[in-house]
Amino acid sequence: MTHEAPDMRIEALLQAMTLEEKVGQLTMVRGGAGAGGPELSPEQLDDVRAGRLGSILDIWAKDGIRRAQDVAVNESRLGIPLLVTLDVLHGYTTIFPIPLGEAAAFDPVLWEATARAAAVEAAAAHIALTYAPMLDVARDPRWGRIAESPGEDPWVAARFAEAKVRGFQHELAAPDTLAATAKHLGAYGAVTAGREYASVDISARSLHEVHLPAFAAAVAAGVAAIMPAFNDLAGVPMTANAAILQGLVRDRWGFDGVMISDFGAVAELIAHGVAADLAEAAALAMQAGVDIDMVSDVYPKGLAAAVHSGLIAEALVDAAVRRVLTLKARLGLLDDALRGSSKAPPDRRQAHRDLARDAARRAIVLLQNHGDLLPLRGEGKHLAVIGPLADAQKDMLGPWYAAGRADDTVSFLSGIRDALPGWRISHEAGCGIETADAGQFAAALQAARNADVVLLCLGEAAGMSGESASRARPDLPACQRRLAEAVFGLGKPVAVALGAGRPLTVPWLFEKADAVLATWFLGSEAGSALADVLTGAWNPGGKLPVSWPVAVGQMPIFYGQRPTGRPADPANRYTSQYLDIPVAPLFPFGHGLSYTRFLYGDLRLSAAEMSLGESVTVEVDIANDGPAQGEETAFLFIRDPLASIARPVLELKGMAKIALAPAASGTVRFALSCAEVAFPDAEGRPVLEAGIIEVLVGPSAERERMLKAVLQIAPFNEGATAADLK
Ligand code: GLC
Question: Which end of the chain has fewer surrounding CB within 10 Å, N or C?
Answer without folding.
Answer: C
